[in-house]
Specification:
Elements: H1 3-14, E1 20-24, E2 30-32, E3 35-37, H2 42-45, E4 53-57, H3 60-67, E5 72-77, H4 84-101, E6 107-113, E7 116-121, H5 124-137, E8 141-148, E9 154-161
Parallel strand pairs: 1-4, 5-9
Antiparallel strand pairs: 1-2, 2-3, 5-7, 6-7, 8-9
Helix pairs in contact: 4-5
This protein binds zinc ion.
Length: about 160
């Protein structure tokens, strides 16, 4: 290998490939090749404002939160009083697991209702997943889940404790 070829090789390997990404103005999630990454992910930490093309906008999850929309709603009904705290912990635990897998999957609100809780999420799959987890952990329960188009498209899951 002559010197010129060697110089070219070094130059080539030193050249960092540039990325074209979107970064959320609010939560700093990074969108790259159809996947969302958390702000503490390796990809996000290695972004270079000088070399990479970065577009700033709100991510779908933050947009949804801002608009008061949600893609999933879970009603948990007829909870035995001694299980209230356990149910909350199980919901939060599943929501965190989901968020770690995909930072766009978020629990938006947790409301008290007359006979239990109403939980809203940014992803339709989240309420099914949380509902299934509660059903397996706290039987006997029945679960019903359906897609609904009004007032906007969302997955509605109802989990009822049979006491
Ligand atoms: Zn965001």
């Amino acid at each position: 290998m002559n010197v010129t070829t060697e110089k070219k090789r070094i130059k080539k390997t030193n050249k960092k490939p540039t990325k074209c990404v979107s970064v959320c103005l609010d939560c700093k999630n990074v969108h790259y090749k159809n996947i969302w990454y958390a702000p503490d992910s390796r990809l996000a930490l290695l972004l270079d404002e000088k070399k990479d093309t970065i577009r700033y906008r709100l991510c779908p999850a933050c947009e949804m939160e801002k608009e008061g929309h949600y893609e999933g709603v879970l009603y948990i009904k007829n909870i035995p009083s001694d299980l209230y705290d356990h149910v909350i912990s199980a919901v939060l635990h599943e929501a965190v697991k989901d968020y770690v897998e995909n930072p766009q999957h978020r629990l938006l609100d947790f409301y008290d209702t007359e006979d239990g809780y109403k939980v809203t999420t940014t992803a339709a799959t989240m309420v099914c997943r949380i509902g299934e987890k509660l059903k397996s952990e706290f039987s006997p329960c029945v679960m019903h889940s359906a897609y609904q188009h009004e007032p906007f498209s969302m997955q509605v899951t109802k989990l009822t404790f049979l006491n």
